[in-house]
TrEMBL record, chain B:
CDD domains: ABC_DR_subfamily_A (cd03230)
Native source species: Texcoconibacillus texcoconensis
Protein origin, superkingdom: Bacteria
Pfam families to which the protein is assigned, alphabetical: ABC_tran
GO molecular function terms attached to this record: ATP binding; ATP hydrolysis activity
SUPFAM superfamilies from the UniProt entry: P-loop containing nucleoside triphosphate hydrolases
Name of the featured protein: ABC-2 type transport system ATP-binding protein
Keyword Transport attached: yes
Domain ABC transporter: residue ranges: 4-232
Keywords for this protein: ATP-binding, Nucleotide-binding, Transport
Automatic annotation (TrEMBL), chain C:
SUPFAM superfamilies per UniProt: Winged helix' DNA-binding domain (SSF46785)
Span of domain HTH gntR-type: 1-59
Protein name, per record: DNA-binding transcriptional regulator YhcF (GntR family)
GO molecular function, a single term: DNA binding
Highest taxon above the source species: Bacteria
Keyword Transcription regulation set for record: yes
DNA-binding recorded as keyword: yes
Lineage start: Bacteria, Bacillati, Bacillota, Bacilli, Bacillales
Length: 247, 303, 109
């Protein structure tokens, strides 16, 4: 029987399609998470009231931010899950090598980020519709733009944040696979930074958040995210280079 | 032609003080032959096979599979199928789905054979992998292993949990498909007598080392059993390696020695009233992998 | 295999089964089957025709009968004699036993 020359990209592509079919429950989880976010969003985030001359106003604010936060959390969890032994072994049941395994995972995470972005935005629209009907339509003000361009921008921004989160999740997951001690170390580092953050008034975490959040140019923002994510993925591949499978 | 070449391969799990699974193992596996990988529990069979498949990284030594280092090599991966009892499948796919997916990964995949075997062994199409019994799982894995028609096909204890009828069918299927599509097959098992007819070569691993690697017929003639009076036997065994010894009575004794008697010696030995008997490959395997001298009888006698 | 030739299922100069057919028939590895064929060739029971495979030789039947007589039957007789000695069965007794057995077999035919 002849040995064949193989291509990593070819195998990675097959694995990617396999994952889309096999990990369909990732997306049903997304629906669950966003519905939950939607439920929480039905509580107004703030309100104010004034009264003058026998008339009283009260205003309540609603926001779909919770849905996005939940979606980001979901992305992180999905990425960590993909690095777990069971999921790795599923890949290596059929044809796979390290690189094709990572490449197909990254493509899968990119896809989940896009889908997450689209559905998060759809969920916030749904939220607005619900709130509109829950309250008196006459007095409900929807602060929104209906321009298609802004919609696409909104989806992309959420998707990029998601991609950033999944790449961090993937890196964290790989570190844990390398050594279980990271399960203790990583949260310790995180809390350490948060405490320092509180003590020194925003010296550590804030710059990182601001690096992304305050960027006003979409192009620069996406560049920042893509470069950071790529670095994280490359590090993940590097961390996992000696990892054995099906052992 | 050699497909698998191992030179002085050692494997230690975990850190330096971890379990040593392979200790300086060297072996060459012939192309397009069925080789039986035989060993006691914990002898290092699985470690050897997984190293060959590129799943594990040897601690020392070199492994070459078709002239490449197999550890995560895409060419080796594309040309290898590795079947064992711990194969993982997504819980969301039915057996039929999985078969279809498997077909996309292996270029030589035989769709029709897969379907025929699937229905012959009465596997349920719309069930999920985790719902199967141990024997059914093994049957399912075996179908993948055969239909993949990989140039390097590895079966690690493929018959676990199968009943004897299915086991027989499996061996027959494997042989027939091999006759039609010769390929390099590594087959590990505890039951040497069950698979020996199927094999071209036997590779015995003992304590992580290559204990014996010979064509089957040479293993069949590897040793002979001698039964006779103690004094006579002891004289014959003087300059020979005794593989096994059992006292039948005070005077009579049964020993197994390496079969290096010339025809003249044979006649002479028989003339001394010693009965010469053949030793099955299974027994050769057992004697070669005995932990200490003597067998279970010695343990029982002491207590 | 030999039995197949003896019983006349494969005639003289007829093509012998290939190692792959044999492997399939007896459920054995083809390499083992090839070795078996080589043994037959060494004993001149079959002969090779280049590129065509193995053929049954003209003296195959006689050779097999000869071989079985000297090897299989000879061995069995040796065993019988050995056993007879253990049991103190005399030569006449043993020969008589063989005669009776042969006669019975003849009758039943």
């Amino acid at each position: 029987m002849f040995w064949r020359e193989a291509s990593v990209l070819d195998v990675a592509h097959k694995q990617f399609v396999y994952k889309l079919k096999a990990y369909i429950n990732v997306f049903s989880a997304l629906v669950g998470v966003q519905l939950l976010g939607l439920l929480f969003s039905l509580n107004p985030i703030g309100g104010s009231g004034t009264s003058s001359g026998g008339m009283s106003f009260s205003a309540q604010y609603y926001s779909g931010d919770i849905i996005v936060w939940f979606t980001l959390f979901w992305g992180f969890v999905v990425a960590v899950t993909l690095t777990q032994k069971g999921y790795r072994d599923i890949d290596f049941t059929f044809v796979s090598n390290r690189l094709s395994h990572h490449l197909s995972n990254i493509s899968f995470l990119l896809t989940t980020s896009l889908i997450g972005g689209v559905s998060a935005l759809c969920a916030s629209v749904l939220l607005k519709v619900i709130i509109y009907f829950m309250n008196d339509p006459e007095v409900t003000v929807i602060k929104d733009s209906y321009a298609l361009q802004e919609w696409i921008l909104g989806v992309l921004v959420i998707a990029l944040y998601l991609f950033l989160l999944t790449s961090s999740g993937y890196f964290v997951g790989m570190l844990v696979q390398l050594n279980k001690i990271f399960i203790v170390i990583l949260p310790a580092i995180l809390f350490g930074f948060l405490i320092l953050e509180l003590m020194f008034g925003g010296a550590f975490v804030s710059p990182i958040v601001q690096f992304f959040a305050t960027e006003t140019s979409f192009l620069l923002f996406s560049l920042k995210v893509l470069i950071t994510s790529s670095l994280l993925f490359v590090s993940s591949v590097f961390v996992g280079r000696r990892l054995e499978v099906r052992s | 032609m050699t497909v698998v070449r191992c030179e002085n391969v050692s494997k230690v799990y975990g850190n330096k003080n971890g379990t040593q699974a392979l200790t300086g193992l060297s072996v060459n596996i012939k192309e397009n032959a069925i080789t039986g990988v035989i060993g006691r529990n914990g002898a290092g069979k699985t470690t050897f096979l997984k190293t060959v498949a590129g799943f594990l990284r040897p601690t020392q030594g070199t492994v070459k599979v078709f002239a490449e280092n197999p550890f995560h090599h895409i060419k080796v991966a594309e040309n290898t199928v590795f079947i064992d009892g711990t194969m993982m499948f997504p819980p969301t796919l039915t057996l039929k789905d999985i078969l279809q997916e498997a077909g996309r990964f292996y270029k030589n995949w035989d769709v029709q054979l897969a379907e025929k075997l699937f229905s012959y062994f009465a596997l349920p199409c719309d069930k999920y992998h985790h719902q199967l019994s141990k024997g059914m799982k093994s049957t399912f894995h075996m179908i993948i292993g055969i239909c993949a028609r990989s140039p390097l096909t590895i079966f690690d204890e493929p018959t676990e949990g199968m009943d004897s009828a299915v086991r027989k069918d499996f061996y027959r299927t494997l042989l027939k498909d091999y006759l039609a599509h010769p390929r390099t097959i590594l087959l590990s098992s505890h039951h040497l007598n069950e698979i020996e007819d199927l094999l071209e070569e036997i590779f015995i691993i003992h304590q992580g080392e290559n204990r014996l690697h010979l064509p089957v017929d040479e293993v069949k003639n590897y040793a002979i059993g001698l039964t006779g009076e103690k004094k006579v036997i002891e004289r014959i065994c003087k300059n020979r390696e005794v593989l096994y010894k059992r006292e039948i009575s005070h005077q009579y004794i049964y020993v197994v020695v390496k079969n290096d008697l010339s025809n003249g010696e044979r006649v002479q030995v028989e003339g001394d009233g010693v009965k010469i008997s053949a030793v099955s490959t299974e027994d050769v395997f057992i004697y070669l992998t005995q932990q200490k001298e003597g067998g279970i009888d010695d343990v029982l006698e002491r207590s | 295999m030999e039995t197949e030739i003896l019983s006349g299922h494969i005639e003289v100069d007829e093509k012998m089964y290939s190692q792959y057919q044999l492997a399939d028939m007896f459920n054995i590895n083809p390499a083992t089957a090839a070795k078996g064929l080589n043994l037959l060739a060494d004993a001149n029971i079959v002969y090779k025709k280049r590129g065509l495979g193995m053929f049954v030789s003209s003296e195959a039947k006689a050779l097999i009968i000869d071989k079985r007589k000297s090897q299989t039957l000879g061995k069995l007789v040796k065993e019988i004699v050995k056993e007879a000695n253990y049991l103190n069965v005399s030569e006449e007794e043993l020969v008589e036993m063989v005669r009776v057995e042969m006669r019975e077999k003849g009758d039943s035919r």
